[in-house]
Amino acid sequence: MSPNPFPDLTARFSSECATAVAAAEEAGALLRSRFPDGFTARPKGELGDVVTDLDLMAERLVVDRIHARHPHDLILAEESGESGGDGSGRTWLVDPLDGSNNVVIGLAVYVVGIALCVDGAPVVGVVHDPVSGRTWSARRGCGAYGPGGRLTPPAGRDRPAPPAGPLLAWTQGHGVRRDDPAARALRHTVELGSRRLLQLWAPLLAWAMLARGDIDGFVGYRAEAIDLPAGALLAREAGVAVRHLDGREFGGGFTGPDTERSFVAGRPGVLPQLLELAARAEAGPVTEAHAGLPEPTQS
């Protein structure tokens, strides 16, 4: 077995993880008590996004809980932006309601996400699903955990995808326009090479599904910074490989340009196929016949 790459961190951040879990679950109870009818919504930005008063209430709850326990840390929250911070390099990322668009249409697919990053790298990640009441958490170098205990790599993790193709999820950043040619090419190619391609409008839930082994892979194009560290850390600590589209190791941080937040993630046996699909998308238009990929199955 290879040595732990972060030996100085294995005994650390347990208090921070407990804070994040408690805050996420308290926010989840609030969201659950007001869904599906006890909230108002308004447009957010010019690209069709929305924000609800549930986002704001859950965010205030989480931010207050973190400030109370860690008053000197910087917090970057989805709706209210930055608060606090003493320059120590510790930054909390809060996505109080990942899946707001789902909530607005009455679809019970949403989660709460919290991460702690140190010098830009995630060290704690928490995802809570208010609908099921389940929570998943990870500390860097210490593994990922869910309601049933530690998340272990699924059997057959090194096997390639079945002939029908892998079951994948997709996300792209809110700022990516629908006619963005690179996003369209990547999504089209990935969909042709998959058995199913899910777009949940709640990327953190897709990360949790990947960490649990419910899906084979996850592809993102210029993903949102606020929820990426928690999800990527959870998946990596569960044995999932995460790479940039060109195959470079993916750090999972939130700093830098959004062009550095495109990724493929999957169990090791599927990762080569995902990287091949990304390379095909970069090379140009792809069809089933040209790519030699399985035809999508019908619903």
Structure description:
- The chain has 8 helices and 15 strands.
- The protein folds into 2 domains: 137 residues, Fructose-1,6-Bisphosphatase, Chain A, domain 1 (2-Layer Sandwich); 125 residues, 3-Layer(aba) Sandwich (D-Maltodextrin-Binding Protein, domain 2).
- Helix 4 packs across helix 7 and helix 5 runs parallel beside helix 6.
- Helices cover 31% and strands 25% of the residues.
- Strands 4-3-5-6-7-8-9-10 form an 8-stranded mixed β-sheet, with helices on both faces.
- Strand 11, helix 4 and strand 12 form a beta-alpha-beta unit.
Give the total of domains.
2
Structural class category: alpha+beta
Task: Please identify the top-level CATH class of the largest domain.
Answer: Alpha Beta
Computed over alpha carbons, the radius of gyration is: 19 Å
Mean pLDDT: 90
Strand order of the largest sheet: 4-3-5-6-7-8-9-10
Discrete helix count = 8
The biggest beta sheet is recorded as: 8 strands, mixed
Gist?
By secondary structure, the protein is an alpha+beta fold.
What labels would you give this structure?
globular; D-Maltodextrin-Binding Protein, domain 2; 299 residues; 8-stranded mixed sheet; 2 domains; Fructose-1,6-Bisphosphatase, Chain A, domain 1; alpha+beta; 5-stranded mixed sheet; 15 strands
